[in-house]
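User: I need a structural model of Arogenate dehydratase from Helianthus annuus for a docking pre-check later this week. Nothing fancy, just the predicted structure tokens so I can convert them on my end. Input:
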Amino acid sequence: MQCVAPSSSIAFKSITVTPSHTVSHRLAQPKFNVKCDAAATNATNASLSAAAPATNNFTAGGIGKSRADWQSSCAILASKVESQQQNTDKSSGADKITVVNGVNGHSSLDLVPIDKLPKPLTIADLSPAPSHGSTLRVAYQGVPGAYSEAAAGKAYPNCDAIPCDQFEVAFQAVELWIADRAVLPVENSLGGSIHRNYDLLLRHRLHIVGEVQLPVHHCLLALPGVRKEYINRVISHPQALAQCELTLTKLGLTVTREAVDDTAGAAEFVAANNLRDTAAIASARAAELYGLNILADGIQDDSSNVTRFVMLAREPIIPRTDIPFKTSIVFAHDKGTSVLFKVLSAFAFRNISLTKIESRPHRNRPIRLVGDENVGTAKHFEYLFYVDFEASMGDVRAQNALAEVQEFTSFLRVLGSYPMDMTPWSPSR
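Assistant: Understood. Predicted structure tokens for Arogenate dehydratase:
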């Protein structure tokens, strides 16, 4: 216990009460030693004289009659010192503080202005996920002008699009709160599934909260003044090169095809290096951004070329039943016969339509042995199955179907339940 009084008018600076315990054969009671500064004034002693009957036992080093006596003495002693301190504060003025936390100071204390203090965080400082369609940060793979950027703009109009050099980086941008959403391709009507993103969906803990379908419109781009006859190399994403193979032949271009990371990146590479013998396959927006001319428009072999993108977020959305919903799951089947048939039957018996089923080798268990030791064993790949079905997780049918699926699987995870893309679609022109 420490009692403190200002030094300007009271010489009694501090009283330190130190407990020390002694053990007798009947009862152990605390001893207390009172230490007072030698410079204590007569005025202070006089003011504390009223507490003398209660404190004599302590100053002599003796033991009080009881614990109640000790507590009463301490209370009287503290109240006297506090009374003296209050009187001193009133006489010296409110702007003079001489002792703060036991530290003696004869000058005024510099206080921090209230407006300079840090303000507490609010919920707005934590970048909450805005509602669908409002301005937010959306990560995509590629550079400005990529089809993924166009998909991000279609999914979230007026968003702040954040380019990422790899699919993995887009996932991490959302997980680290650098972005609020990610828009990534999962399948193309001509090139099929983008397996890399299916693997990343399983590796990361993001949730699918929506989908968007984007028609793909390829253009052949080159530097200003360059004619098709001067071209001897075409660069683009491997999928874009495959989707324009026949058209490039019809144009009479006997050129070398070289693959790069993305379509807009190919356009940027041609412009940045001033390559007059190289053309790029990319979008019309990429030509506008990088100052290239369009040598041929709509060069995709199939006008019904469309890519499906999914929107990813850190938290799932609440499933609804009043609008068309789609749910994506991934599972690994357990040991037994006809397991895949039993899983699919769980949806068929409840009239739930499947829109996609995709198998990927199980990386942790790529090989499964079947048979017995006498006859021999056969080796098969162990697979993970990705399934999309038309139902919301708020639908009782979907809940019962997954409960049944779980009986036949060793692993089951819902990747997301989200609204279907119902926007009108027309082939690329």
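Before docking, keep this in mind: The first strand starts at residue 2 and ends at 4.
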